[in-house]
Amino acid sequence: MALTAIEIYKLLPQTNCRECGFPTCLAFAMQLAQKKASLDKCPYVSEDAKAALEGSAAPPINLVTIGVGDKALKIGNETVLFRHEETFHHPCGLAVLVPSDLDEASLKQKATRLSELQFDRVGMIVGVDLIALQHVPGSDFRAAATAVAQASNLPLILISDDPAAMAAAASAVADKRPLLYAATAGNFDEMVKIAKEHGLPLAVRSEGIANIADLAAKATAAGVSEIVLDTAPKTPKDMLLHQTAIRRAALLKKNRQVGHPTIVFAVGDTPAAKALNASVAIAKYAGIVVIDFDDPALVLPLVTARLNIYTDPEKPIQVQPGVYAVGAATEESPVLVTTNFSLTYFTVEGDVSASKIPSWIVVVDTKGTSVLTAWAAEEFTAETITKAVNDYDVAGRVKHRTLIIPGGVAVLSGKLEDLSGWKVLVGPRESAGIPAFLKSLPKLAA
Questions:
Q1: Residues 6 or more apart in contact with residue 122 via CB below 8 angstroms
Q2: DSSP 383-434
């Protein structure tokens, strides 16, 4: 039975050191009781207390790591049903299916292409996270796994119901820490043995929530610590129902048997339908979504949706404050000023690029807020702009002394001129007006 906050508090050091990120040990205990924090946040908890708190402090959904190094994917360990309650911490992985019966050159070409299938979204590089290598009977699964692992640093999912093929492939790429998919009622003992031998995460597959819970519990009892669930839904409706039911059971009912991340294979009659169903799985609540297409036009909406869902709603996406050159900016180029809210910056940057006039953009640290919001919060002021211009040595980059500020904050121009010593031009209120504004701008005097 789960411990109460007071019971957990009695086992903590009670030093109120705040190193866990909470103001008191009691506050930390309350978060542990609600499954919103992990015990490893406390640096001073005793081994005896760890043993006593292990069950209560463990996250409701286990953490599973697939792959190694910078590209390793961590899934699970979520603590809330809805992102506005806190945030979602581990974005689901997007995997692309690759058949093992391709020749070595084609396998390597495909793996390289998937590694390079990336997009720049408001300064963040997003793309495919895993390669799901599917065993085709009669093909050399070991050789295929080796070829893909050599050509790409993306984590692997090895897909086969054949224990012999899986054992051969897993042994060849065990150092890459692939996910083994999948243990079923028919091959359970053999797949568990392979996973335990190499210390690899294992997916278990069975139709329906009740069956998958039993199989997962059996895998846990057999000594597999990292488990991924597949309820094998036959329709998108079933998938949505299964994903939601598993998440609610793990978080609200504290059902440890289903306290594992999930994997979903996107289905549909067309690639567009598959992409649509994949987006549903990303939102509700898949740990991994497997697709069988790599069309950038379909992958981009999926990674964008994932980025939006897994962005902390309390922390805007920001760019690093500083000075950025757009085009081949020179000492005679215009200098524009904006905030470090990513959407604002990249909108301005895009419109400056569209003007074909090389320019400098000074990005002021406004804690990730837009122009008018930052101005209202006194984060985008004559003082903060002046400080940014001085700190980033804008004067050392250009001969002239002219700043262009957004039209929405024209009221800052007089004070900004007094504080900075620069001449201030008021630009357009909307970023879309920047190209015409820059093209009509006379040569800036030194």
A1: 317, 319, 342, 343, 346
A2: HHHHHHHHHTTGGGT-SS-EEEE-GGGGGGHHHHHHHH--EEEE--SSGGGH
Compute the C-alpha angle 186/190/196, nearest 5°: 135
Residues near 440 by beta carbon (within 8 Å), at least 6 away in sequence:
none
Residue 200 located in a structural domain: yes
- Report if residue 314 sits inside a domain: no
Radius of gyration of the chain (CA): 27
257 and 145, same structural domain?
Answer: yes
Q: Where are the beta strands (DSSP E) in 53-168?
A: 63-66, 73-76, 93-99, 118-121, 124-127, 130-134, 156-159
Q: Report if residue 445 sits inside a domain.
A: no
pLDDT of residue 1: 44
Q: Tell me whether residue 48 is in a domain.
A: yes
Same domain (yes/no): 205, 260: yes
CATH number of residue 348's parent domain: 3.40.50.11600
Residues 6+ apart with CB under 8 A from 315: 368
Buried b (16+ CB within 10 A) or exposed e, 324-339: bebeebeeebbbbbbb
Mean pLDDT comparison of 179-193, 240-254, 311-325, highest-scoring range:
179-193
DSSP string, 136-168: PTTS-HHHHHHHHHHH--S-EEEE-S-HHHHHH
pLDDT, tens digit, for every residue of 131-142?
A: 999 999 999 999
- Domain containing 11 equals 5-57
Q: What is the mean pLDDT of residues 111-124?
A: 88
Q: Residue 92: which residues within 8 A CB-CB, separation 6 or more?
A: 75, 281, 282, 286, 287, 288, 289, 306, 310
Three-state SS for 326?
Answer: strand
Instruction: Count other Cβ atoms within 10 Å, centred on residue 402.
Output: 15
Read off the amino acid at residue 50. K
The pLDDT value recorded for residue 107 is 97
Q: Do 374 and 428 share a domain, yes or no? A: yes
Contacts 24+ apart (CB under 8 A), 271-279: 271/295, 271/298, 272/298, 275/301, 275/302, 277/236, 277/239, 278/94, 278/302, 279/305
Q: What is the CATH number of the domain that holds 23?
A: 1.10.15.40
**What does the buried/exposed string (b/e) look like for 278-315 if buried means 16 or more CB atoms within 10 Å of the residue's CB?**
bbbbbbbbbbbbbbbbbeeebbbebbebbbebebeeee
Residues 176 and 251 placed together within one structural domain of the fold: yes
Evaluate if residue 122 carries a pLDDT over 80.
no
* 196/180 Cα distance (integer angstroms): 11
Looking at the structure, tell me whether residues 365 and 299 fall in a common domain.
no
Determine contact, residues 238/249, Cβ cutoff 8 Å: no
